[in-house]
């Protein structure tokens, strides 16, 4: 999972900075596709962990939403 998160942050960096490495140019469409791909890879890993440890993904999302609501007083 660490590898997948690293790839996700490289994709985010490419969008935020505008490139992954100096001298490299990528179209916005390519960067957005890569972001979707890396987010999906991380999500796959989370779902695998949910299955392994018997955690319901829907209840996990509800838990996360409630935690954010409390944090931001909404």
Automatic annotation (TrEMBL):
Assigned keywords, A-Z: Hydrolase
Q: Which InterPro entries does the entry link to? A: MazG-like_dom, MazG-related_YvdC
**What are the residue boundaries of the NTP pyrophosphohydrolase MazG-like domain, all occurrences included?**
2-71
Q: Single GO molecular-function term?
A: hydrolase activity
Q: Where on the tree of life does the source sit, at the highest rank? A: Bacteria
Pfam families named among the record's database cross-references: MazG
This protein is called MazG nucleotide pyrophosphohydrolase domain protein
- The organism of origin for this protein: Lentilactobacillus kisonensis F0435
